[in-house]
Design brief:
single chain, alpha+beta, Zincin-like, binds zinc ion
Length: 131
């Protein structure tokens, strides 16, 4: 009887270990710049027929600027999207941020207000067509 209990406890422990390793691996994978890059490329493919320019997408620490994401144009006219590491914890938050910054790339300097009508139309289009 005691042996059975021990086996049962070991099994539960083993399952818990496997589960947390799986979680940690998935967690680490989504912390890489490649993961962000893939998100951008997926949006580009799904909503913009790959017509958007290649963009460097990277994790960053935007705590001091109090922002979750940021898009800017470099001197060589290529875009950079930065995603704050600490605030984009859940998948949903991360997706929102990448979508938001992607719409900045789409509507860059097309309107006075960076979150104006065109920008909001871009966001609505993505949100409406998400699987
Ligand atoms: Zn914005």
């Amino acid at each position: 009887m005691r042996l059975r209990i021990n086996i049962a406890i070991s099994l539960v422990a083993l399952i818990a270990i496997c589960w947390s390793v799986r979680f940690a691996v998935a967690h680490e994978r989504r912390r890489t710049p490649e993961f962000l890059q893939a998100k951008y490329q997926e949006l580009n493919r799904t909503f913009f027929h790959n017509q958007l320019p290649p963009v460097q997408v990277d994790w960053a620490d935007l705590t001091e600027e109090n922002r979750v994401g940021k898009t800017y144009l470099k001197e060589d006219n290529s875009f950079v999207i930065l995603v704050d590491r600490d605030t984009n914890v859940r998948d949903g938050e991360l997706e929102d941020t990448v979508e938001h910054e992607t719409c900045h790339v789409v509507t860059w300097r097309q309107e006075e207000d960076p979150h104006g009508r065109r920008f909001r139309a871009c966001m609505s289009r993505i949100k409406a067509n998400k699987h």
